[in-house]
Amino acid sequence: MGEERAAGLARRVKALARTLPVHDLEAGKGARDGDWSVYDLRALALAAVDGVIDSMGLDWGATAADVRRRVAALARAAAPDRPAGQADQVAAAVLDGLLNDRNRREAFAVPYGDWSGPSYRRAELVFKLLEEVEAPDGTVVLRATDEAVNLFAGSLDRDVEDAHAAAEAVLESQLRRGRIDQALATAREARLRSLQFAGKVRRALDGTRRDLRQVDWGEDVPRLLDDALAHLADRLAVERKLRATLQETLGDLAETGDGGEAAVSAAQLLRVVAECQARHLELHEQVLGARSVFLAEQERQRFAPAGDVRLVDLGEELLKPLLRAGAAGGGPAAAAFLSAAVGAVPPRLARVVDLVESLLSPRRVHDEDRGAARDPDLVAIDVGTDRFPAEVRAAADAVLDQVGAGPVRLSALLARARAAGDSVPELVALSALHAYAPEGPSPLRATDDGTPLFDPQFAGADLLLQGTGS
């Protein structure tokens, strides 16, 4: 394969890869809850991108809630007999798919084969379709990337400037031939290109304001601005001619009395062209002031004194030099450090009243035996079961014998034991504790599943008891 054909193949493969998130939405709808077969998720995804593009200006976009409402309305129109909440679920799934919500809204990464180099290699295409940005008023809005605009316009591998110029050339040709309806569709595509080109310049300026070091003002941005000025000058000249042609066309239609669809389409076309012209004038003003933004940000970021955020190594930079200085050299430094660390200590003022009271106070008598440790009076407590009478042990055994294969709550056993006698619940509780942490063989096994014990006599965990032989 020749080098030129291999490069063209790589461009087409990457253009096709950018459509995979939309196809994945359609392919995965069978795994959703409910029947989604009636919905075309590819069309709804393009409608979502259209809604974002329609709301995009130089600084704004559409909110996620607005896009979901737009897509949900289209889904309800496609299936009016479905449950009311299903359309909202479809809209949320479409927006999550475009934002790559499955991978924490990171960029899509699609592997592909590339023959354009000296040898075949597996490469990865990284891109986004929609992205969340913060608007100047603090709200979070969605903006369509260049890949999304290309996907919506059907021009998957065109350069922005070339696609824009081509769209307006086609528009001019259609106007000369009187194809008003076709010209309206072309004008809307040209409007998408103007939004896409405006976003390209805006990203460079936003990156400059965020971090000057991340933007190449040596070559890339000056070349972008020069190309932008030349491109905008051509577009504004073409749009002035288009507006003049459209106004003349509307005048001719008014003179002939033709107020039908041709006049309506021509009026809509004039509004679209006027909007593109206004957008280009605003962008032209921003491009002219871009170098002022660079100078202002350079003064703010490069020439501002940077704060020292380096942390001090206490061992190497403080403790070891202080120890090497000795008492003579390190004493003043240690005293200054202690006074700063401990804080201000007010000096004690001598008062005659305090001195007289101290002199007249009785002499303190030291008790020699006060510090001697005394042997504690220990009382032996029998914690074994032998301290319970035989009838209590028999009654407790009768209660515990009721534990079989199925687990029984300690609370239920205590209720039965309480009906058998006063000391029986205590022995049952001790037996349950022994089963929970046995020191030897035990006929019971107790487990704690986190359920608290509600009992008038005992507290803790409501253990589950089960016979070990079952």
Please tell me about this protein's structure.
With 470 residues, this protein is mainly alpha-helical. It folds into three domains: 3-144, no CATH class; 160-300, no CATH class; 385-467. It has 16 helices and seven strands. A hairpin with a 5-residue loop joins strand 3 (130-134) and strand 4. Helix 3 (41-55) crosses helix 6, helix 8 (180-210) runs parallel beside helix 10 and helix 14 runs antiparallel to helix 15 (410-420). The two termini are 75 Å apart.
Summed up, what is this model?
The chain is mainly α and 470 residues long. The chain contains 16 helices and seven strands.
What is the residue-averaged pLDDT? 77
Number of strands: 7
Helix content, binned percent: 55-70%
Strand order of the largest sheet: 5-7-6
What letter string, H or E per element, gives the SSE order?
A: HHHHHEEEEHHHHHHHHHEHHEE
List the keywords.
single chain; two-stranded antiparallel sheet; 7 strands; mainly alpha
List the helices and strands and how they pair.
Layout: H1 3-17, H2 20-27, H3 41-55, H4 64-78, H5 84-99, E1 108-114, E2 121-127, E3 130-134, E4 140-144, H6 146-153, H7 160-176, H8 180-210, H9 220-256, H10 261-288, H11 290-301, H12 314-342, H13 352-360, H14 390-400, E5 408-409, H15 410-420, H16 424-436, E6 444-447, E7 464-467
Antiparallel strand pairs: 1-2, 3-4, 5-7, 6-7
Helix pairs in contact: 2-3, 2-5, 3-4, 3-5, 3-6, 4-5, 7-8, 7-9, 8-10, 9-10, 14-15, 14-16, 15-16
